[in-house]
């Protein structure tokens, strides 16, 4: 469970016919998408008013909920809008338009999203919605009349916002396809504004191969669609050229990567490792047990690589085989244990993070006890505990529900167990190399991570930011370690270029070098309401 010092981005565990222009050509051809300065100078000394209806002169506030995949989508949308002249603001009250990027995993996240829409409307703000909620349920009453950007249409955010500014409602919800094959989504080399200029989040695929009975994300992200290895290598290379020192790979299931395009995750990772400068690090995203099982040998080698965090997020959800069957998780608890035991043996010190759902329909006391026993066995240092929420339209919503007070009690009992052990106490006294990338929520420390992606708080000295430093661990908390810099050790700079400034748009040079393709009228199956 995240602490007050945790990183701001949480990781939960996120129609083009063959004759039509490719997404790449479409990006180049569409003037409203090509990053450029709006010709404000043509207006001489005339001041633009905030209520001007000239698209590209307004201030936009963006809010993103959910996983790192959704955060990556948000970064891409912000980058394209800024490159087209819009001003991205941190102040919702001064914004002319709110762009709300939603998450459909849990009811509370959707409730926050719905409340934000109402708040924006009460303040007479224009609203554009994006993310998994409108993609999965575009006809919800509270979305009526709002412009929607589908999860595979984020490369067209400027068009949608342009129209919303003028008072029009546009809905782009179609999937990107090439010759009938579904694509991973919008191009990876679009402009973006990184939330943290030192961290690049790369979505390696969208969707998954499972059909979990509780999952609403599947309704939005669909079946597995992977990006080609070369595109991911190129995106990684570009990120390092822009001063990034840490890469996060994300998707709904990284372990399934490549199964739709004839490759696999280890093949991709070995290629990406070649691009990582010394001292920079790669973090793997969430993987479900079934697809990682066949790659355990290679995954152990990769997690032992000095430039890859020895960290893996493998959601178990329940330790009861009968509950896993009702969830349609496609593995049994022995499969999960095999993954954990193998990696613990072959990757000494590896961090395994996991997720557990408390009170899934049909879960008995015996089922829940099996989950308790699993946590007692492994003492997971990072455990995301979720009380079950039935999501509308999912098979689990139609099953017989566990009474609310029992769900609450089980969630509380599991939380108490999690807080009863201290996973990092044995680390006190160790000397470690850590990569400093963020600031703690209380702004008192810089946040670094060691080889095992354990959070290490270090003194907030400007010369440490973005550096690999050596520290002596002198204190351990439930969710963090504290490190004292080793005096005789000098900070090492992994970045091969100066990082972009906060708010600076990434990828502009690459896009501006593209040649303009011919403009072809869009004939895909977008809906306009």
TrEMBL record:
CDD domains: Radical_SAM (cd01335)
Residue ranges annotated for the Radical SAM core domain, each copy included: 194-425
PROSITE patterns: MTTASE_N, MTTASE_RADICAL, RADICAL_SAM, TRAM
Cofactor(s) for this UniProt protein: [4Fe-4S] cluster
Database matches in Gene3D superfamilies: Methylthiotransferase, N-terminal domain (3.40.50.12160), tm_1862 like domain (3.80.30.20)
EC id: 2.8.4.5
Swiss-Prot/TrEMBL catalytic activity: N(6)-L-threonylcarbamoyladenosine(37) in tRNA + (sulfur carrier)-SH + AH2 + 2 S-adenosyl-L-methionine = 2-methylsulfanyl-N(6)-L-threonylcarbamoyladenosine(37) in tRNA + (sulfur carrier)-H + 5'-deoxyadenosine + L-methionine + A + S-adenosyl-L-homocysteine + 2 H(+)
Keyword Transferase tagged: yes
Transmembrane segments: none
InterPro entries xref list: Elp3/MiaA/NifB-like_rSAM (IPR006638), Methylthiotransferase (IPR005839), Methylthiotransferase_CS (IPR020612), Methylthiotransferase_N (IPR013848), Methylthiotransferase_N_sf (IPR038135), MiaB-like_arc_euk (IPR006466), rSAM (IPR007197), rSAM_horseshoe (IPR023404)
Disordered: annotated span: 1-42
Main localization, broad class: endoplasmic reticulum
Record flagged with keyword Metal-binding: yes
Note describing how the cofactor binds: Binds 1 or 2 [4Fe-4S] cluster. One cluster is coordinated with 3 cysteines and an exchangeable S-adenosyl-L-methionine.
Pfam families, per database record: Radical_SAM, UPF0004
Domain TRAM positions: 425-487
Domain MTTase N-terminal as annotated: residue spans: 58-166
Any one of the GO CC terms: endoplasmic reticulum membrane
Subcellular location(s) of the protein: Endoplasmic reticulum membrane; Membrane
Keywords tagged on the record: 4Fe-4S, Endoplasmic reticulum, Iron, Iron-sulfur, Membrane, Metal-binding, S-adenosyl-L-methionine, Transferase, Transmembrane, Transmembrane helix, tRNA processing
Signal sequence, renumbered to the chain: none
GO molecular function ontology, one term from the record: tRNA (N(6)-L-threonylcarbamoyladenosine(37)-C(2))-methylthiotransferase activity
Bilayer disposition of the protein: Single-pass membrane protein
Protein family according to the UniProt entry: Belongs to the methylthiotransferase family. CDKAL1 subfamily.
Its job: Catalyzes the methylthiolation of N6-threonylcarbamoyladenosine (t(6)A), leading to the formation of 2-methylthio-N6-threonylcarbamoyladenosine (ms(2)t(6)A) at position 37 in tRNAs that read codons beginning with adenine.
Protein name per UniProt: tRNA-t(6)A37 methylthiotransferase
Organism: Mola mola (Ocean sunfish)
